[in-house]
Amino acid sequence: MSTRMQTPTQPAATELARPPEAGRKRRAVRLPEQTLARNVLITAVLALILFALSENFDPFTNLRLATVAYYFTALAGLTVLTGLNGQISLGHGALMAVGAYSTAILVGRSGLPLAAALAASAAITALVGVAVGAAASRLRGPYLAGATLAFAIGLPGLADKYPSAFGGENGLTVSPPTPPTSLGANFPLERWQAWISCACALIVFLVLANLLRSGVGRSFRAVRDDEVAAQLAGLNVARVQVLAFVVSSACAGLAGGALVVTTQLAAPGAFQLSLSLALLTGIVLGGLGSLTGALWGALALVYLPQWSDDIAHDFSLSTNVQSNLPLALYGIVLIVVIVAAPQGIQGALHGIVRRSRARLRKNPATQEGA
Amino acid sequence: MLEVEDLVAAYGPVRAVDGVSLSVPAGSITAVLGANGAGKSSLLRAVSGIMRPRSGRVRFCGEDITRQGAEDIVRRGLAHVPEGGGVIQELTVEENLRLGSLARCSRAERPKALKDVFDLFPRLEQHRKLGASSLSGGERQMLSIGRALMGRPKMLLLDEPSLGLAPLLASRIMGVIAELRQKTELTVLLVEQNAKSALRVADRGVVLGVGRVVAEDDSAKLAADDKLRHAYLGF
Amino acid sequence: MTRFIDLTLNGISNGAIYAAVALAFVLIWRATRVVNFAAGGMLMITTFVASSVISSSGSYWLGFFVALAAGLLLGAVVERLLIRRVEGGPPLNAVIVTIGLLILFEAIAGMIWSNTPRSFPPAFSIKGYTVGSHTYLFGPFDVFTVLAVVGMATALLVLFRLTDLGLMMRASAFEPVVARLQGVRVGNMLTLGWALASMAGSLAGLLIGPQVFVGPNNFDPVAIFGFTAAVLGGLDSPLGALVGGLILGLSLSYVSGYAGASLVTLAALAILVAVLMVRPSGLFTSARARRI
Predict the structure, then answer these.
(1) How much is the pTM?
(2) What is the mean pLDDT of residues C11-29?
(3) Which among B113, B66, B75 is positioned nearest to C185, based on CA atoms?
(4) 20 to 30 A from C193, CA-CA: which of A259, A280, C22, C154?
(5) What ipTM goes with this model?
(6) Distance from C176 to chain B by nearest Cα, in Å?
(7) The domain spanning residue C70 has which CATH number?
(8) How far is the alpha carbon of A340 from chain C, nearest alpha carbon, in Å?
(9) In this structure, is residue C125 part of a structural domain?
């Protein structure tokens, strides 16, 4: 699977905005060269933007923001696993379930503070990821898909098997997180939920953005591109595969925790196979292997169903058609986008940027020649 | 029999064949020579229809086949044995041969075609029911040539038939090619890196360099041209 | 003891159905290297078509064969119009496209036939055979199920191994470029592969329809089990599909019977993981030597 690994667009765009000719004194805004400093800066900027947005959003939109944020958290991890490391997983919905139930149990039963519970959930899911990743490291392609698929449908069975621990069909409810008193008595719950979810997303963004550019990221890509060559170069392929799985599992677990905080419920119904398939769809739609792609994917996963719902309601049609139209539109959009933009949304955007830059470069030349 | 005019074939921006013209008279053996990356294999691929030429013309028996696909071209009697032979490992020897007969051989003609190939390559008859993966390198090359012959082609495009073979086997294959031309008036376009042995078998030689024709002459004259030999043919 | 026989017979019957679906996955994988997530949706549609034909014409067998024909057509159309466009690209793209197709099919089925599941008649009686005092959970319809799947598998075997067309299809799957050089119209062979695979799925739908009822989402479990069986047996092996289906059918039957129905999905997971740990490419893998 050959995919282009892309860092967040902002540094690339601004660095290339610098004209390549020598002797030019004027420079565009220059971001720090060092990866960590640059990513911290970007994260800080994003945090400010999200803060401003959440201040101005009504409660419903803030919940939307929270949802996009936890989808991003899960998708970012998954796109690193699949895009960067080349392992396909149909089981990340189940991993989100692990994180969700862990958070629900830790917060509900042991009264752990939320931040600690979320961190612990990520850790627990990472542990599960070690087991799954170890099993997965021997498998490739569709066999890996099959195994993770079985994991996705098998794991929710546990909730039914041990209803006392996991609440059975109805799941576990979690009381809404209370905003700290320092923020004021009237601080909206939804904004707090959005902040929590966005905080998770920002942490994951920072960690993964650094990982992509690091030696670890390079080892992921090396194993994806050519296992034999990677092995000959001294990489322990199995260990790299497992590490990629662990990283993505931690993200999924954290996302699951954020999901519970947002929806206040951890129930099997939310973690069916369709969730795993949606996550897979999200990373491919957005653009495989790219964190920005994960963002587009998260937006698509939240807004595509909404959009198809709205369109369906615009038509007054028979009940059968009406109730199924949103799904039909969703399916059509998936197909059309992938066929039209095989590199996903991020790939398509990149192509547009590249083409317009090429066109801009051509114009001065023709003027000179005229 | 085969006429190539200003053929250009490219992989993206890389022009592997950059304006090649040559003609192969009926009943002759023409060798295409040159260093690695000179465009020899790409030339064959563009002629046989696996690759779409970017520009230029290819005429076979007077008919323009430039834009046709490989499936149609082989039906006209132009068979291509690709680099490495292209033997399908998962099939048996006999199934590989049968595959070669599907395009041009009727069911009735098949047993005779098979017998002819087995006469030429007795080793294949011994292995006929075995999987093609059990063959050695030389046997595989024989199988791929035999498969091409099943369709009783008018012309054969051979891409490095001696590649990876021990010298004895390589010269055997060359011998078979010469024998074929004698018995059946088969026209052959032969791509080879081993220029020495190719020129011994061929009537004419075309030397490619970086996608272009560098020299075209009778094989004896090419072999005698010292400068050319050293520069492009390595001996 | 009779319980064991009951469960075994039940397992064989269900296993045959999983095998048919697994065969659909294997045929498509071999031809185009795509995992067809839409398989469950396609066989659902053809079963709905059968249901409509049966209720309007009154003839079961007319519906039966129309469904098989519809399967052929549907597979060919999907490959030609859709899969053709994503065949050469990144493998995940084809996966997403088939997922989108699955969603679309389920929605369309809901629009045309409504989301309320309807019953589907079995070809023969489902009343079990009575031997002595015990009535087994295995009746004429189960016999038909097994025979139909075995018959179809045999027909496909004959096609692939003994006919020229089958040879062309196999060549197209293994080495498309070489096949082209032998005059094989590879594109058509791929379309045919999808058509046959879809027909195999249609058969499975007709056989499991009476059990699961016919509704837009009712065939998802059998599709998942069919895929599991295909992976179990090795996606490159039609024989593996049959064996995988049988193993899965039997195992799930025993688990359901002795340990409880809620453990069935966990059992499927355990079986699959156990097999894949020992044979990472399924039970029947033809290891192609890797050229470095």
Answers:
(1) 0.86
(2) 95
(3) B75
(4) A280
(5) 0.90
(6) 10
(7) 1.10.3470
(8) 9
(9) no
**Are C32 and C79 spatial neighbours (Cβ–Cβ below 8 Å)?**
yes
pLDDT of residue C98: 93
Between positions 148 and 187 of B, the ones with CB within 8 A of C are: 151
Higher pLDDT, A169 or C239: C239
Range of the domain at A258: 33-177+185-271
- Whether C82 sits inside 8 A of A281 (CB atoms) is no
Q: Where are the domains of chain B?
A: 2-77+154-233, 87-153
pLDDT in tens, B13-36: 888 888 889 899 888 899 998 887
- Residues present in chain C in total: 292
The alpha carbon of residue C46 and the mean position of all alpha carbons in its chain are separated, in whole angstroms, by 13
Please tell me the CATH code under which domain B2-77+154-233 is placed: 3.40.50.300
Mutation site for C-interface testing, chosen from B78, B83, B90, B105 by largest number of C Cβ within 10 Å: B90
Query: Taking CA atoms, what residue in C is nearest to A153?
Result: C265
- Predicted confidence at residue A292, as pLDDT, reads 93
Q: How many domains does chain A have?
A: 1
Q: What is the pLDDT of residue A11?
A: 44
Determine the average pLDDT of the residues in C154-178.
Answer: 93
**Across residues A38-53, what is the average pLDDT?**
90
Q: Residue C136 domain-assigned?
A: no
For C108, name the nearest residue in chain A, comparing CA atoms only: A328
Which residues of chain B have a pLDDT value below 50? none
Amino acid symbol at A220: F
Q: At what angle do helices B167-184 and B137-150 cross, to 10 degrees?
A: 10
C29 found inside a domain: yes
pLDDT at C216 over 50: yes
Q: How far apart are CA C47 and CA C222, in angstroms?
A: 13
> Does A315 reach chain C within 8 Å, measured CB to CB?
no
Rounded alpha-carbon distances, angstroms, from residue A161 to A105, A165, A256, A287, B45: 17, 9, 21, 38, 61
CA distance linking residue A260 with residue C44, whole number of Å: 35
Whether A93 is in a domain gets the answer yes
Confidence of residue A3 (pLDDT cuts 50, 70, 90): very low
| Per-chain mean pLDDT for chain A | 85
Query: Residues of C with CB below 8 A from A328's CB?
Result: 103-104, 107-108, 111
Residue A311 belongs to some domain of the structure:
no
Does the residue C190 lie in any domain? yes
Domain that holds residue C237: 2-117+145-278
pLDDT for A32 equals: 58
Number of domains in chain C: 1
Rounded distance, CA A255 to CA A263, Å? 12
Tokens for A161, please give them.
Answer: 């098997």
In tens, the pLDDT along A295-319 reads 999 999 999 888 888 887 777 677 7
Instruction: Show the tokens assigned to A172.
Output: 């576990």
A225 falls within a domain? yes
Contacts of C224 in chain A (CB under 8 A): 149, 153, 273
